[in-house]
Amino acid sequence: MMKQKLILLFLIVLIVGYSCGNGDESNPPQPPPSSFNFTGLTVNGVNNGFSYMGVNTRPIVKLSFSKPIAQNTATQGILFKDAAGNDVPYTIAFENSNSILSIQPSMNLSYLTKYAVAATKNLTAEDQGKLLTPVVVELLTAYDSNDKFPAITDDELLTLVQKQTFKYFWDFAHPTSGLARERNTSGDLVTIGGSGFGAMSIVVGVQRNFISRQEALTRLTKMVDFLTTSGQKFHGAFPHWMNGNTGSVIPFSNKDDGADLVETSLLMQGLLVARQYFDGNSVEETALRNKINVLWNGVEWSWFRKNNENVLYWHWSPNYGWDMNMKIKGWNECLITYVLAASSPTYSVPKVAYDEGWASNGSMKNGTSYYQIPLPLGPAYGGPLFFAHYSFLGLDPNGLKDAYADYQTQVVNHTKINYQYCVTNPLNNYGYGSSCWGLTASDIPNGYTASSPTNDVGVIAPTAAVSSLPYTPTESMAALHFFYYKLGDKLWGNYGFYDSFSLKQAWFSNSYLAIDQGPMIVMIENYRSKLIWNLLMSCPEVKTGLVNLGFQSPKL
């Protein structure tokens, strides 16, 4: 009996198994749905990778896939976010049998703002397949092209820029010393070179009736008295930075805690301009000139040849001596240093130091053409534009020549090359063009750099184009219009134009730097009246120094 039961059980198992087997053969299990792929995209009908700049405020983003998409999964599978991660409302239209999703924001996006459209793995095909790889499309909307301020004449605009920028050196000057703070966050830290620019700006302020002659005389006397009695000097030269309360050195870097001859030359350039401007016979104006002469005659330019070498050295430290070991060699912003060193009535340097040191016996020449524009001196493409500004705030380049260059050609062509680079825009930086150009040293996001065509990080500094107004008046005025009218809501502040901006990064600095603000005031004035050029070139010592170095100029 037991044996029969076992046989019966065995037969049942066989039958059940057979039945199941027959069922599997007639209705095999379905394989899981296969994944699908992203196959292409356009933004406003254009395919340009996964990043789009300058798009309108109602862009249409079309995403194509290898399978039809289940419509009920689209709202969870597509994300539209702003830079802060907030959801952006959008609509979706389905095209090409649901394999193309056309996505558009439900309302206008903000100008010059970053957004992202993403297709995630929550997106499902009609056959339940899943998206194999997520897709992210980055969008940057265009800047608002509407004017931000009422139109005024170009002459009124130039005056406005000078007046607003002048406030940096007047209202924001250090209260104790009257010297220029390095930047708008510097506290007691003042800059020696920037204070030279400030002295020239004060002269412009009088000329343009921003302040009275007496107010300027009082401020300049305060500055000169502080430099004379409190400012720390090393063989007559000042440091790069000092404390505006005490006059003590604030080190610029570890071993840069003593004299900075280049900063000193930028200061002396400004003080000599002030000396020439305040030429009255009053006791105060006479005293100011005499005090400036004491500082000017006290700079031991020749000592910075370091044991009579035929070159000047940039730094000297009471703690580290000549360890910085930086020779002042061209071409850069330092022509004024050699001119003033050769002009000194007390510690002048000979022409051989200029020829062998600065000019390196001619090796500072360039001679290559860029964009069919010949560049007489300097690095490829000319370097940052402050090379064409700092020395020529006071030195008039028009008709200025020596054995190495025609300096009018140098500064004009350098500027035109910088302009043409931005117009050509080889890196496709959003916004660059004929009205948005100018690469020079400035703040950048999370840092500072000397921008140039060979070091282009996508950041424009208004000082570059505006300070080039005497060289490229048409191109610079176009840039000035763009900065003020089109970007003024983001770029114009209490002390004029902020230091820099990047349209491709939707970034605007909130900083002001003395060495960028000063050249704008001064070079606008040189464009309008040649005032500062005429003043420095009227210095008898400067005339002598230029002649001794072999220069020619209509003003010599």
TrEMBL record:
Keywords: Signal. Residues 53-124 form the SbsA Ig-like domain. Residues 326-540 form the Glycoamylase-like domain. The keyword Zinc-finger does not apply. Coiled coil: none annotated. InterPro entries: Glycoamylase-like_cons_dom, SbsA_Ig. Transmembrane segments: none annotated. The keyword 4Fe-4S does not apply. This is Ig-like domain-containing protein.
